[in-house]
């Protein structure tokens, strides 16, 4: 299976990294947008990148519980130090972008479609995830 | 194996920690990923319901090779109408909690979908006890 190069994700989504220690960035197999914790916990898939406007510590707890690849805080919002510290501790890659959630997701959707990780005609119907 | 955690109402700084520790224990125990996902949804939602809606309580996980039990017990306002609280979208969370991304009214429905067995007992002005089991296939 082909994967997207993280350098391309960082450039296309205009990401700023919020981790200090060297981190091996996990592969991104998909993405989820959501600002309600219960929704993301139930429906996001493991290995997805999460785009959200939330920036408090619980975002990291949810990302780590689901096994998400990374968190992107959208709309020019910057995570506070306690969120950054928890992300570092849990090993969750944390980024922010000036783009709003729609534009960040749109650009990532294009990248994911290009490498065949999204099938535009079959995907997109949200359902509870089992793993 | 039993894991037991104290959970404090409105303590968002530690919220989610108990569920995170339970997840790590389930992974170490080599449980099936589907079992882990269901158990952590229950653990996290039950933990957050204590943080958001109750005064304080405990979250317990009993882990055996065939089954994970999650028990959340709290002292708090209790749930006056459990069938109503179980409805998707029903929430009494105040606006500042909703701004943080809680209060979608999805926690209890998600617990119900994830649990193979579920029992909720509640007494108004006293507290709530939630017991859930997930079988490991
Ligand atoms: N432990 C509890 N003590 C008192 N009331 C509770 C408790 N758990 C749930 N409730 C009541 O049941 C309602 C529905 O709970 P549920 O978990 O489904 O949604 P929520 O917590 O409001 O939002 P979400 O879980 O999506 O963040 C709550 O808004 C609250 O009124
Ligand atoms: Mg809840």
From TrEMBL, chain A:
Protein name, per record: DRTGG domain-containing protein
Gene3D superfamilies in the record: HprK N-terminal domain-like
InterPro entries: DRTGG, Ser_kin/Pase_Hpr-like_N_sf
Top-level taxon in the UniProt lineage: Bacteria
Domain annotation DRTGG: ranges: 35-108
From TrEMBL, chain B:
Residue ranges annotated for the Histidine kinase/HSP90-like ATPase domain, each copy included: 16-132
Cited SUPFAM superfamilies: ATPase domain of HSP90 chaperone/DNA topoisomerase II/histidine kinase (SSF55874)
InterPro entries: HATPase_C_sf, HATPase_dom
GO molecular function ontology, one term from the record: kinase activity
Key words, A-Z: Kinase, Transferase
Keyword Kinase set for record: yes
Protein name per UniProt: Anti-sigma regulatory factor (Ser/Thr protein kinase)
